[in-house]
Amino acid sequence: MNAEVLCIGTEILLGDIVNTNGAYLARQLATLGIDVYHQSVVGDNSQRLLDSLKLALSRADIVITTGGLGPTYDDVTKKAVADYFGLHLEPHEPSVRKIEAFYQRRGVPMTPNNLLQAQVPAGATVFFNEAGFAPGFAVEQGGKTVIMLPGPPNELYPMFEKQVAPFLEKYTGATIRSRTIHVFGMGESLVENTLRDLMTSSVNPTVAPYAKSGEVQVRVSAKAESADAAFALIDPTVERIRNMLGDVVYGVDVGSLQAAVVALLREKKLTVAVAESCTGGKVAAAITDIPGASDVFGCGVCAYSNDIKQKLLNVSAKTLADHGAVSAETAREMAAGVRALSGADIGISITGIAGPGGGSAEKPVGLVWFGVNCAAFQETSKQLFSRGHKDERGMIRNLATLYALDLIRRASLRL
């Protein structure tokens, strides 16, 4: 059983957007045990779309398309597929009701073309769009299957995982399930070296590391006759990997570092406050992106100037004069100051040089000092995040944000 991914959109061909859908679907299909031998991109043109579809169906059992299901004139995908299979389009009533209710709630008129999104080929298996309007669908005919999905990732991803993946399991004769181990503070090469014997000896489940932005993820996947049986194979391996990697593992299937941090703080009934200089509020933003953060987040102070560091965080003028804003001493006083200001259980500080200017031989671009202040302990640490690139300000700030989040996690585990 093999599949081809056909992504539709002139904006992809022009490079206006990056085709993340193709990579996502390839990973998901591999997890399901379905081979992908080709991927294609075609613009919003009916004839070229039909040509691409015919080619894909000539060499694949399943073709999955993304995009082209919207209400505008250039959304030609579903009409082209319906014509190819000789099917007429008909309204999917649950989607029609959702669209009509949306405009009624807003109190604005709905143009008729919006209902084009709710049309699907007659007899198709429909995948309801929880996050948008245009449903996805699958057409099965003559031993071939075409699955059409919306283009926006926030619509495509949940639709695939909740509805399309279970639909595809009938083609594999089994179910494949995975767990993802999240690692921060150990590079991909060291993770792979640590797990190499396990990775090479494991067949079912399989073990594979993936480098992500600022972290590593290890995916453990198993194939079995049921989800429960697959997880029974997976879970002992996950526990073994956690023991092998140690405290750099911040969670399993937790989504993100900030989500894991908020969950841990809530579990332990702790609060945190942050004082940020070079990260400019990114740590506070990451925490408050997570629902329920108000239970654990005291306050955030974005203190770029020395004057604000003194007035709000009680950093002494002598400390700044003797050691500078980017120093262990300043980080220590910032953490203590924000904790005193907020009354939080944990105070975290970040002060550094994100560049591209401001660095020196003693304090180069990428140097960041961190402070942690709790009733039980106070610590400082430093990191050098520069990789020597010409423009790495964003990378330095992002890595500093992740490191600060991990410090919160580690502090919480000690309280």
Please give a structural write-up.
By secondary structure, this protein is an alpha/beta fold. It has three domains: 2-172, MoaB/Mog-like domain (Molybdenum Cofactor Biosythetic Enzyme, Chain A, 3-Layer(aba) Sandwich), CATH 3.40.980.10; 176-252, Alpha-Beta Plaits (2-Layer Sandwich); 257-414, CinA-like (Maf protein, Alpha-Beta Complex), CATH 3.90.950.20. Helices cover 43% and strands 25% of the residues. The chain has 14 helices and 17 strands. The protein has helices at residues 10-13, 20-31, 46-59, 77-85, 93-106, 153-172, 188-201, 227-245, 257-268, 282-288, 306-313, 317-323, 328-342, 393-414; strands at residues 2-8, 35-42, 62-66, 89-91, 119-121, 125-127, 136-141, 144-149, 175-183, 206-212, 215-224, 249-252, 272-276, 297-302, 346-352, 367-373, 378-384. β7 (136-141) and β8 form a beta hairpin. The radius of gyration is 26 Å and the shape is elongated. The mean pLDDT is 93.
Protein topology:
Blueprint lengths: L1 E7 L1 H4 L6 H12 L3 E8 L3 H14 L2 E5 L10 H9 L3 E3 L1 H14 L12 E3 L3 E3 L8 E6 L2 E6 L3 H20 L2 E9 L4 H14 L4 E7 L2 E10 L2 H19 L3 E4 L4 H12 L3 E5 L5 H7 L8 E6 L3 H8 L3 H7 L4 H15 L3 E7 L14 E7 L4 E7 L8 H22 L1
Parallel strand pairs: 1-2, 1-3, 3-8, 13-14, 13-15
Antiparallel strand pairs: 4-5, 6-7, 7-8, 9-11, 9-12, 10-11, 15-16, 16-17
Helix pairs in contact: 2-6, 3-4, 9-14, 10-14
* Total beta strand runs: 17
The CATH class of the largest domain is Alpha Beta
CATH third-tier fold name of the largest domain: Molybdenum Cofactor Biosythetic Enzyme, Chain A
> What's the architecture of the largest domain in CATH terms?
3-Layer(aba) Sandwich
Low-confidence stretches: none
CATH superfamily caption of the largest domain = MoaB/Mog-like domain
Rg from Cα: 26 Å
Which structural class is indicated by helix and strand composition?
alpha/beta
Q: Tally the helices: what do you get?
A: 14
Distance between the termini: 52 Å
> What can be said about the biggest beta sheet?
6 strands, mixed
What best-fitting shape do the alpha-carbon axes yield? elongated
Q: Give the number of domains.
A: 3
Provide the spatial order of strands within the biggest beta sheet.
Answer: 2-1-3-8-7-6
On the 0 to 100 scale, the average pLDDT is 93
- Which bin fits the share of residues in helices? 40-55%
Strand fraction: 15-25%
